[in-house]
Amino acid sequence: MKIYNIAIVGGGPGGIAAAVESVILKIDDVILFEKGENHSTTIRKFYKDNKRVDKDYKGQKIDLNGNIYFMDGTKESTLDLFDKILATNNIDVRFKIEIDNISKDGDIFTLRTTGGDEVKAKFVVISIGKMGVPNKPSYPIPLEIRNKVFFNANSINQNEKVLIVGGGNSAVEYAYFLAEKNNVMLNYRKAEFSRINQINKELLDKSIESGKLKTKLAIDIESLDSSNGKPKVNFKDGSSEIFDKIVYAIGGVAPVDFLKKCNLELDSTGVPIVNASCESSVKNIFVAGDLLFKSGGSIASALNNGFDIITEINNRIKQ
Ligand SMILES: Cc1cc2nc3c(=O)[nH]c(=O)nc-3n(C[C@H](O)[C@H](O)[C@H](O)COP(=O)(O)OP(=O)(O)OC[C@H]3O[C@@H](n4cnc5c(N)ncnc54)[C@H](O)[C@@H]3O)c2cc1C
Question: What is the pLDDT of residues 291-311, one digit of tens each?
Fold first, then answer.
């Protein structure tokens, strides 16, 4: 399998800067993953049309270090600038690809996509911003049970009866892991787990065969009710069951959960601990942009992070 020099996760200002600065420094085999249909999802989705974009956002005066000439403008002029630099620098961008896990084996990272594919790289730059949220079900979650419904497995205690909803790697990982110490059912609307990797497939099969994990497959959920404060799940086949807790793993992830999954050390406010080159506690994983701030951040600071990170990676590659 091909091993990229640098894999960049997130095609906003931080990720774009990392990609462009890599090309300028003639680092080859660089790939950028963006989960949206185009780059800069935060700017596209959260800025109003014609919004004024300030370089010194909210009074933060930042001198640009890198090679992207970003200045005051509008939402549209900012997107145009990024369109142009991505196109003229011939960057290998993969849109509509969401990375859902990064693991390390020796000196090489494996980045896993939500579609179940894997990519290998020597260095990783994470610049996923702070706007990501887990996907929610289309039916309402009654107020009385909202404190029993989760989008990660952090709040599950031993011996609880838990329903995991989803069919990707994350759902399956939660299911077989929690099934060791809990009464767990895995519910997926399809009959087959076609997007999971081989290791997860084997561990899932083992957990099901041993009787630890129950499944309810090819059946969707119709609605949720409260039964004395516990979630009552009404399935589309007419059956209902009461659980202590429900965990939805149906795509999307809160940035802090993504960082935890990648084993990055975070401070008490959920900000990754990095050194002066923005390198995280995991050697050769770097973090750029808004993730480095509890709140705040700006386009200019994300661009500078991209430049600083690639300068450091370039030194290491070309030593
Ligand atoms: C309403 C609003 C107005 C603002 N106005 C200004 C302004 O005038 N000037 C200014 O300097 N700053 C402004 N900001 C802040 C600025 O937008 C951010 O600081 C900047 O976008 C941060 O860049 P980033 O690369 O860290 O993250 P983001 O811009 O958030 O980009 C992250 C990208 O990663 C992608 N992504 C997320 N998860 C994954 C994954 N798992 N796999 C693949 N891709 C993924 C997302 O789709 C997104 O495109 C504003 C912010 C908001 C919300």
Answer: 999 998 999 999 999 999 999
Q: Is any atom of ligand 1 closer than 6 Å to the C-beta of 21? A: no
Domains contained in the chain, CATH given? 3-132+254-317 (3.50.50.60), 143-248 (3.50.50.60)
Burial 61-88 (b: 16+ CB within 10 A, else e): ebebbbbbebeebebeebbebbeebbee
- Pocket lining: 102 vs ligand 1, CB cutoff 6 Å: no
Ligand 1 center to 298 CA (angstroms): 8
Q: How far is the CA of 36 from the centre of ligand 1 (A)?
A: 12
Reported as a single tens digit per residue, the pLDDT across 210-237 is 999 999 999 999 999 999 999 999 999 9
**Nearest CA among 250, 246, 270 for reference residue 258:** 270
For ligand 1, atom 16: residue with the closest CA: 298
303 lines ligand 1 (CB under 6 A): no
What single DSSP character describes residue 48? P
208-215 CB contacts, 8 Å cutoff, 24+ apart: 212/176, 212/179, 212/180, 212/184, 213/175, 213/176, 213/179, 213/184, 213/185, 213/186, 214/184, 214/185, 214/186, 215/185, 215/186, 215/187, 215/188
Rounded to an integer, what distance in angstroms lies between the CA atom of residue 6 and that of residue 163? 38
Global pTM value: 0.92
